[in-house]
Protein: Sugar ABC transporter permease
Amino acid sequence: MKTSAVEVWSGRLLLIVVMALTIIPFISLFVTALHAPGTYPAGLSWPDEPHWDNFALAFQSADMLKMLGSSMLIELGVVPVSLLVATLAGFALGHLKVPFSRTLFVVFVLGLTLPIEGIIVPIYYQIRSYGLLNTQWAIVLPLIGLFMPFAVMWMRAHFVNMPHELTEAARTDGATTWQLFWRIHVPLSGPAISSLAILLFLWTWNQFLLAIVLVDDPTKRTMAGALGAFQGQWGTDIPLLCAGSILILLPTLIVFLVFQRQFVAALLQGAVKG
Structure:
C-alpha cells in the first residue's frame, strides 16, 4: 500500500516536534550552565562571556571524582550479577520445561507492578538490620532484586523465540543443558543481553531514591543521588547546578550513543522473527 504525501509530511512534522521537545531542555540546560555563577539567566539567552570554567568548578566543588568511582563500583556490583541471573532464569523459563514455570512467570509479572516508592521503608529497615547503611552494598543489593522482574522477563521473551530445532540438534549430538546454554544460546543472544546491560547501566546510574535514603555520604552514592547533596550546597547557584547536571548526564548519553545499534537491534529482533 502506497503512503500518501500527506502521511509522509505529517510523520516528518511529528518527528520534528518530538525532537524539539526532547532537545530544547538540554540546550537550555547547557546555555544556562555557561552563565556567570550566581546569576539567574532568563530563557535561552546566550551569555556575552561564556563561563566554560563552570564545568571544572562544578566537578571540583562536588568532588565528582569520588562520586564517579562510587558509581562505577555500584555499576560493577549490579549489572554483571543481574545479567547473569536474568539470563539463566530467562533461559529456564523461556526455553526449558521447568516445574511451576507458569507460577514463576506470574510472580515475575507481579514484580513488575511493584513500585519502589511503596517498599522503600521496608528496604531501609532490612538494610539497617544487615548493618549495610551508608555503604555501596545498600544500593547494590536492593537494585539487583528490583531489576530482576524486568530483566528476567526481557530475557525470557528472547529465549521463547529461539528455534527449538537448535536445541533438538544439540541434544542429538549429546550436548548437556549447560553446553546448550553457554555454547549455543548465549552467543545468539548478544543483542538481547547487550541491550539489557545498557538499560541496567542507565537505571543504576540514574538511581536517586535509594541513594539518598540509604546512604548519607554523597561520595558513596550514585552520581544522580549525589546531585541531591550538590543541589543542597549550590541550589541558589543555577549555572553551577546546571553544569553539575550536565556532567552527571554525560556518561549515560555517551553509553547510549555508542551502543544504540545493539539496543535497536534487540528491540527489532522479535519483529524480524515474527
In short: The chain has two domains: 5-50, 62-269.
